[in-house]
Amino acid sequence: MTDSADSSDGSSPKGKKTYVKPEFKQVPLRPEEAVLGFCKTAGGGGPGDSCASLLCREVGS
Amino acid sequence: MRQPALSGSGKLRRELSFAVGGISIRLRARSESLHLHLPPGLEAFTAEASPRAMDVSVDLADLSASALGRKVFDSGGLWQLYDDGAHCSYRFESAARGPAPYRIARFSRDFSAGEVLQHPHREARAGLSFYPLEYPLDELLVIRRLGLEGGVELHACGVIAEDERGFLFVGQSGAGKTTTARLWDAAAPCTVLSDDRIILRREAGAFRMYGTPWHGEARYASPRSAPLANVFLLDRAPKNRIDPIPRAEATARLLACSFVPFHDAAAVDSAARLLEEIVHSIPCHRLAFVPDPSVVPYVRLGL
To answer: I need a labelling partner for B197 at 20 to 30 A (CA). Which of A12, B64, B114, B176 fits?
Structure first.
């Protein structure tokens, strides 16, 4: 196992940096999880369950 | 006179306090007829209010005609955020509860103090106790204060190993956080802080991870904390494998798994900087894993 891939400076033995072609990587963001918009609690605060509040009838995502 | 009965397993009180990830919150009922309790998952987080506690007063009110200022953000779910220049207000509504909001939480812009007004519901009318920061309000308040204090909450499982090192396993829903929590709990002497939400804070020049009450399916929720030693970004795979990950990709994946007030550019910027610092100072790796007990010794021996 090594440390993070870009932790070295990418230098060649002669001291010149080797060219690495830039690469795009998409990282998915899930807004329905990120904004805490839905009730997913069971009276204990856990988002993994459905709401147990007497009045709440929301279904969590 | 009829004595109020307990709603939930907590004690009946007019004032209570708790702390999550170093954020202290004190709740006070304004009227004598109101009673508060913490839900079972939060009881372990009961703590004396700190001098910097968020002070929250609680009352019942008719919320059908509330002026809150400009709408800043709509979660697409239960709540919308408003700003009147001096206060931020979370307005909670649900079709199941009628057209009027059922709760309004109005806070100073620094989230040091505020009030929660609850539409008079069945529990409160009957003199029963209730929890005014019902999810997701408690978590929303904590992430706002974290953003101001240099912290961030992540979609992650946190484990404190026998030697007190903190291992963080990060991933969105379905990545294997709950599975990881169960496997570590069964295979090694350790403390699982949470199987779904972990708070990271910078403290005295180092990074520390905290458990939260907002657990996942396996219901792990501990108020303990530990120094952050290793970060793993989870991927399911047919074979266990620990790989290096470019720092930019690690930062992006951590941000995508964070609970940040995305409507607040300064808060997003602050979280991104904090995560970048973490990636530069804590070993971060991609952990591709088989969801069986073999992954626990693989990680422990590989470090």
So the answer is: B114
- Across the interface, which of A3, A28, A58 has its CB nearest the CB of B78? A58
Closest-CA residue in chain B for A49?
B217
The proportion of chain B whose per-residue pLDDT surpasses 90, expressed as a percent, equals: 81
**B281 and chain A: CB distance < 8 Å anywhere?**
no
Give Cβ neighbours of residue B32 (< 8 Å, ≥ 6 apart). B14
Q: Does B177 touch chain A (CB under 8 A)?
A: no
Q: Are B241 and B289 in the same domain?
A: yes
- Return the amino acid letter for B50: S
Distance between B258 CA and the closest CA of chain A, angstroms: 7
Is residue B166 located within the same domain as residue B298?
Answer: yes
Q: Which of B104, B120, B148 is the last residue of a domain?
A: B148
Last residue of a domain, one of B148, B175, B196: B148
The residue-averaged pLDDT of B37-60 equals: 95
What does the pLDDT average to over B107-124? 88
Residue B258 touches partner A, C-beta closer than 8 Å: yes
Measured CA distances, B249 to B129, B245, B246 (Å): 47, 7, 5
Residues of A with CB under 8 A from a CB of B: 1-7, 25, 27-41, 43-49, 51, 53-58, 61
Does this model's pTM top 0.90? My answer is no
* Residue B2 domain flag: no
Alpha carbon distances (Å) from B36 to A32, B46, B115, B134, B187:
30, 13, 14, 11, 39
Q: What ipTM, to 2 d.p.? A: 0.77
Please state the φ and ψ torsions of residue B155, each to the nearest 5 degrees: -75, 95
**Do the domain assignments include residue B59?**
yes
Q: Quick check: bond before B101 cis, omega within 30? A: no
Contacts of A33 in chain B (CB under 8 A): 155, 172-173
CA distance, residue B141 to nearest chain A CA (Å): 11
The one-character DSSP state at B187 is H
Residue B273 structural domain:
150-302
Contact B208, B198 (CB under 8 A): no
CB distance A6–B197 less than 8 Å? no
